[in-house]
Specification:
The complex is a heterodimer. Chain A has four helices and five strands. Chain A is α/β, with parallel strands linked by helices. Chain A has one domain: 3-Layer(aba) Sandwich (Udp-n-acetylmuramoylalanyl-d-glutamate--2,6- Diaminopimelate Ligase, Chain: A, domain 1). In chain A, strands 1-5-4-3-2 form a five-stranded mixed beta sheet, sandwiched between helices. In chain A, helix 2 links the parallel strand 3 and strand 4. The longest helix of chain A is centred in the middle third of the chain and has 10 residues. The radius of gyration of chain A is 12 Å and the shape is globular. Chain B is an alpha+beta fold. Chain B has a single domain, classed as Histidine kinase-like ATPase, C-terminal domain (Heat Shock Protein 90). Chain B contains five helices and five strands. In chain B, helix 1 runs antiparallel to helix 2. The radius of gyration of chain B is 15 Å and the shape is globular. Classes of the chains: A alpha/beta, B alpha+beta. At the A-B interface, helix 1 and helix 2 of A face helix 1, helix 2 and helix 5 of B.
Chain lengths: 110, 144
């Protein structure tokens, strides 16, 4: 969270989960295609389907880039599904780069 | 615990109704998890169901999704009243999509839906009649 200068907007606490990788995209079908459980999704797409997609793909944290704020319906859905939502001021490229540099690598391209 | 009896369910899907997108998939995911089915099988079944739901919502006026959980396999059938697919081979290509711009803005229409459904199924059948609709039948085996 510090690396991304992120704020957390949903109440869910997943801080002790073991994150194994990250994936950056705005295309939800790509998330479902290249899914990897226990990963972080970095996206600039803000709608309820992002949360639904994350649940189905086993994604544990969603990071919204460039300060894009989810509305209360999205936050409520994320709380129900216990998926933390983070907002970072950085662009998708910078946010991904910072996490990569910090040791969080991409998911396997299966 | 895997069931000895068939468990079935069905969902009606309405074109353009993104609000309920994913409901069938999440329902099926919960059901399969309760039955103690392996996590990767549950994930594959949820993914194909979600992609199928999204396809009907994007392209069709309406459709039905039915699932059957059998001792040996899970079968998911999606039938829609949509425009049909003219060239199935083309539609099966990764990245090919006919989705309009507003669908892409919502994060869909990347041309990965049908290929992803096929990738996550053990058996995949698609039938389509232009002007009438499309039926997709997918099976995931529970015995390896």
């Amino acid at each position: 969270m510090e690396i991304l200068r992120a704020t957390i907007v949903s109440a869910a606490d997943n801080s002790d989960i073991d994150i194994q990788g990250a994936y950056s995209t705005d295309l939800m079908s790509n998330v479902l295609y290249y899914h990897a459980p226990n990963s972080v999704l970095i996206t600039s797409l803000v709608n309820p389907q992002v949360v639904q997609t994350a649940e189905i793909a086993g994604i544990k944290i969603i990071v919204f880039t460039q300060n894009k704020k989810p509305d209360k319906d999205i936050i409520e859905l994320a709380n129900q599904k216990k998926i933390p939502l983070l907002i970072t001021p950085f662009s998708m490229y910078i946010a991904s780069g910072k996490l990569f540099q910090a040791g969080l690598h991409g998911i396997r391209n299966n | 615990m895997v069931t000895n009896q068939a468990i079935e369910g069905s969902f009606q899907l309405i074109g353009g109704n993104f609000e309920n997108a994913g409901n069938a998939s999440i329902h099926l995911k919960q059901k399969l998890t309760e039955l103690g089915i392996k996590e990767d099988v549950v994930r594959r079944a949820s993914i194909i169901t979600f992609e199928a739901e999204i396809n009907v919502i994007i392209y069709a006026a309406a459709g039905w999704l039915r699932y059957y959980i059998m001792p040996q396999y899970i079968k998911i059938i999606v039938e829609d009243m949509g425009p049909g697919i003219e060239d199935i081979a083309l539609a099966m290509q990764e990245g090919y999509s006919t989705a309009p711009e507003w669908i892409r803005e919502m994060g869909w229409g990347a041309g990965m839906g049908l290929p992803n459904m096929k990738k996550n199924s053990d058996e995949f059948k698609i039938d389509s009649v232009v002007g009438e609709g499309t039926t997709v039948e997918m099976v995931i085996n529970l015995t390896s």
